Amino acid sequence: MTTTTSYLHSVHHADTFSIASSPALSLSSSVTAYSEDAIMNEDDENNSLAYPRTPPTSEQVFTTVHAEFGHCTNEAYRCISKHDYTRPVQEHIIEEPPYYILLATYMSYVILYFFGYGRDFFGILFTSHFTHLLPHNGYAPLKSSFDSFYSRRLRLRILDCVSQPVTGVPGRSIIVLDRSFTDNDHALIHTGGKTRSLNISSYNYLGFAQARGGCADAVEESIRRYGISTCGTRLEGGSSELHVTAEALVARFLGMEDALISSMGFATNSTFIPALVRKGSLVISDELNHNSIRLGVRHSGAEVRMFMHNDMSSLESLLREVISQGQPKTHRPWKTILLIVEGLYSMEGTLVNLPRIVELKQKYKFYLYVDEAHSIGALGPHGRGVTDYFNIHPRSIDLLMGTFTKSFGAAGGYIAGSKTIIDALRLRGHSGPYAEAMTPPVLAQIVASMASIMGVAPTSQQTNSRLSISRDNSSVVLKENAVGFPATAPASMLPTWMNLPPALADGSEARMRISRLAFNSRYLHAGLKKLGFITYGHPFSPIVPLLLFNPGKMCTFVRLMRAWSPPIVVVIASYPATSSMTSRARFCTSAAHTKEDIDTVLRACDEVGGIMDLKHGSGERWGIDEVCERAVELVHSHFS
């Protein structure tokens, strides 16, 4: 493949050539129809398109250029994500734009509020379109004018730029269903057309969300054996053998004593946090924690105090205050103090300062709960998340929470910790007795993808799972020669019918994916900075926010990126997900992207950013050609 444009052009031909009756997921993933993921072989000289005469095997699909996962054999485009302890942990630095940008943003909101509330006022007086904002037949309005103002006056006007309908696998490229409107976005109409676009907006970090390959083969085999419902082979407590296998594998993957899994990631936080704390307990929460954490704390009845985002000075000051003062009015000691943070923050792309938090934990003796929804699988040399990235002993943290919807290409969430705590959560957590169990296909995807990251060891070669620790900079750090960690997955732990391809079983494919994700993330982040943009987040974060500031620029940015050749699908975020002054486009890199894909995104951002006046970052600037040519140097220069 020479360019991303020629590649997507070829995929578009494959889309139009597809057989209408072929299913999205065949009964055997080794049989590949001429569908949206048809295999393409391109001649570098004339970019000719040739279709294979015989369907390739699932192993051959991986090594061929196709729509789900980009082919990249250049070992230079690899990187290892780990913390360099010769340098301090990077603080969260907010770069401010010029004053005229802030002034224009303020004025945009002033104009929006002035005309928006003016239309609401006169509309309520003289028209019938606003009856839902007024009491009606003795009933109170469902929403106040203020609560629905943002959705009616801003989001509705850019509706074609949010919630874009897509179909197919959220891999390297994705098919967007075309829409049109004639009434200011009040009613979007599907035209019936489809556009193959470069996907830089999905949480498919390691690219395991594939319709074909070793993991898909395991999922299909689980459907044959158990069906698609939760009523598979049942054991005591409503669990199947796959549930037991998945929970044991999660605990071993994380290096914890025990783990439990839940069928929904959001519910993992919102239903299990109330089982951890209650009235008389204190929860200390980062101000940018996810809504699921906030909801769980609210339901628990515990007191909650927040500290400034990732600010360790603010956290320590708060700890001293709450410990010395105790509970309000009575000043009795708190029954429990629980600190909740996220490993990787989804809107900011910032990484928790885990070494410093572990030091504070040893000093002030609180419980620590880390939400790794976005960091697990995506960070660390072994894909074990923030503990792996900082080389910190996982059992120095009381509870590790995460989801399977990002790096593992599945659904649901987990909580891992000591066996005592996990057993208590099984009894007290609302998700235990009331929620539905995971379906066998989802469990099979979890087991297959997680085992491929760990690597499957024959029973005779199982390693000791004992973990050893040492002290380094007053924090708990794993020894480089720690025995049995990161642990492999013994073949005896996997279902006997699950036969992973050699590249998955030995872990080589997963290591390649992890290193490619690290390179892509670091390259996109550094490339945008060199082009002059203001970005947030850690350099290794697969989430790269590009600041737009002015709310009127959100729709323009999305439409211009969608009009690029090839079209690029991006996600925008603003209030209430972020502060009103920091509207942004949020890029999500994946191991499925090639270096040429990141080049395409950077070239599009360079031109669109110049048109929209978005380049307000400080520091040395490079031209787009120099950024693309010196990508490897740009990525690895941060290590020196």
UniProtKB/TrEMBL annotation:
EC main group: transferase
Organism domain of life: Eukaryota
Transmembrane regions listed in the UniProt entry: 99-118
GO terms under biological process: ceramide biosynthetic process; sphingosine biosynthetic process
InterPro entries: Aminotrans_II_pyridoxalP_BS, Aminotransferase_I/II_large, AON_synthase_class-II, PyrdxlP-dep_Trfase, PyrdxlP-dep_Trfase_major, PyrdxlP-dep_Trfase_small
Family statement drawn from the similarity comment of this UniProt entry: Belongs to the class-II pyridoxal-phosphate-dependent aminotransferase family.
Gene Ontology cellular-component annotations: membrane; serine palmitoyltransferase complex
Record carries keyword Repressor: no
Catalytic reaction annotation: L-serine + hexadecanoyl-CoA + H(+) = 3-oxosphinganine + CO2 + CoA
Annotated ranges, domain Aminotransferase class I/classII large: 198-503
Protein name as it appears in the record: serine C-palmitoyltransferase
Keywords assigned by UniProt, alphabetized: Membrane, Pyridoxal phosphate, Transferase, Transmembrane, Transmembrane helix
EC number(s) on file: 2.3.1.50
Example GO molecular function: serine C-palmitoyltransferase activity
Cofactor(s), by name: pyridoxal 5'-phosphate
